[in-house]
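hey can u check if this looks right to u? its 387 residues, i copy pasted from the old doc so theres a chance i mangled smth
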Amino acid sequence: MNNLYFYILQTSSTTTTTKMTTQTKLYGKDLSAYEDLDVDTLLSQLSPEEINILAKEVDPDDNLLPPSQRCSYECEKDPTGPLNRKKLIEHINKQALETPDKPELKPYVPGVIRGKKWIPPPPTIQEKEAEEQITIDLGDEYEHALSAATQEEIIDLAAILGFHSMMNQDQYHASLLNKGQPVGLGWDGITKASQPKPYPADPPNMTDPDTTIKQVQADDHTLIDLNWNNIKHESYEKFTQLFEALPANTHLETLSLTNTGMTDTSALKLADALEQNNTLRVVNVETNFISPSVIVRLMKSLLATKTVEEFRASNQRSQVLGNKIEMEITSIVEENPTLLRLGLHLEYNDARHRIAMHLQRNIDRIRKDLTLRLQFRFFNNLRRKAI
């Protein structure tokens, strides 16, 4: 019967297999001689008993066969009635509770090893020789420092140098089990927080908003840098007075309004003022409550006069601008030939790369223009002296 089973399996092999093993023979014949045999015809000639024996010898791991043929268990008893799943589960649980457990050969006792304890084999001669050959001369100064270092300092040094990933298996398990570590250290130890360094708080901004508004309205030539940073809870009326005076001002160059509580309504007033002012070089409105759409409006206002060289508007109410807003800001920046620095948190690499490349081109162009102007002035002075 086993020969018949092997004969059927060999005849059902593919043509590729027979070509690769042309030297293999079965019953004194090459496998190519059995290619034309019909397996169904051979199976039809078997009796039911022989087919049953053949089914029992089928490989149970062959997932191409149905489960009924992969299972070696056969129940020949007649059913006693319909299947009742609840009663079947109760019967299985009852039988499991009533069946006693197999007694252990050696009862369990805490702290007592049952069986033979595994002892690692001693290192071979080749391993000992390899360990002895690894010698590094660090010098007297480093040798003294390492010999006097504590275990915690050695561990910190290994972590800094990246040696913590070079532990072998025994060292790794020893570190997990805290073998040789004092109480409070190791993986299960308590992490101690370092004492924070005290930094002095920023001094309060002593700028008087009402006085600076009057100076802007009067176009005071001494007021070049206006700083309202950290002056919170400014009213909408004061912002309006300041921004309405900006178009006529011809001396103010830096406008800093960081952390002043500015909202979209005041920012729109600022955008209208930037479209008419020709002297501002730096505008800073960071840490306020300006929405992304109003930031786009501020960026567009810079294109009217093209005099602002630095614009900062990060850390607003919405931390994420979104792809659409970032692409719109990128297009606006690429149209601005005078902007040199932009303070905005951009999430997408495409926007960051395009803006950085354009700002670098603006810086290079201004540097070339400045170089040409200096050269022209130098040669012009030489010509005047020659005359």
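The radius of gyration is 43 Å.
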